Amino acid sequence: MPLFHYTIIDSRGKEVEMTGEFSGLAVAAATLRNQGRLVLSMEEIHAEKPRPKDRFRLSFLDYLSFVRKSDVVLFFRQLATLIIAGITLSNALFVLEKQAEKRRLRKIIGAIRRDIEGGSTFKKSLMRYPRIFDTLVVGMIHAGEVSGMLDLLLDRIATYLEDRATFRTQVISSFIYPAIVVFMSIVVIAFLVGFVIPKFVPIIKGMGGTLPWNTQFLIDLSDWFRAYGKHAFAGIAAIIGVSVLFYKFVGAVRYWTDRIKIKFPVLGRIFSYTLAVQFSENLSILVRSGINLAESLRIVYDAVGNHAAKAVITTMERMILRGESLSRPLRSAGYVFPAMVADMVAVGEETGNMDRTLELAAEIYKKMLTTYVKRMNAMIEPALIIILGSIVGFVAWALIAGVLAMYGKVG
Questions:
Q1: How many independent structural domains does the chain possess?
Q2: What predicted TM-score, i.e. pTM, was given to this entire model?
Q3: Tens of pLDDT along 210-226?
Q4: Residue 108: which of 71, 82, 158, 159 has the closest Cα?
């Protein structure tokens, strides 16, 4: 059916622009009048004539137009609204294509619409852009297409992405202040050792005599920093670069690194809680969307970043296909997943309410993670300030002690 864009006066007396499908202009006007709406204007949205296939090919300039997670959330929220309103998927994508402000996203939506009009499924069209639409979203879209509940799943995807973005922002925001303090501490120390202390060294050395231990230590540190500082930084950078390459290309390194980091002091609990939230929330929303457990685990495998957890999920999928319990491999994987996750999964298996128990586990670990991060920041922030103040105080004390010693005022 043709798609119409119209402006009406709502019950509050305000102008509202809307879009809808009707069999014709007269039918559209009559339908709206029968609904008691005052129509101010109405026009049919004509689909553009087909253009060459490479019209939607992304250029270099398109890649400079970054598509953020907030753009993807807005896309799914608007798409869900249009589908729920009764507009076909193709026409809904056409509307969103015209409304998209970012060039890259506009081309992607256009290419998806072209694929669907050519007979492709929505899932396959989204899979062409894995950097924009992750495997979890694609899996839910597939479930919506198979079950005929695409409108419901689109709304659920939008809500899930909004909640995930909010949670991610909260966690990142909690680390901003400690990161700034650490960065400024490094800058201050480098400035003192590299620029301030060398200005005093010639004066202190020129007076002769024996220097206090703290002044001598400061001078030796400054000399070492100027002589070997560049080499030290280059060595650290090389070690980090080699470690990243090993982590990226050597499977055993990835596995053991991800497994060991969960046991790190302080930060290990953050990794553990984050993993519990990722696993529980993703599996919960997939099971609730009607995807069978084995396929849900395959999708969660791609969504989880921890490679030690991936190995456990692979074992879980294999045991599920053999008809065994899901909680059993989780209990054996206490070195990766917190014990409560296995307990909640066991409860879900017994009650047949797996999606709800997993959702509850995700909510619990979200709260635990947020509380732990806040508590950690409350301890780290004053500790960092004390450390920075102590370093600056030590430098000042050493310099003053050296000057006074040279004048014979200090032993």
A1: 2
A2: 0.69
A3: 778 887 887 788 788 87
A4: 71
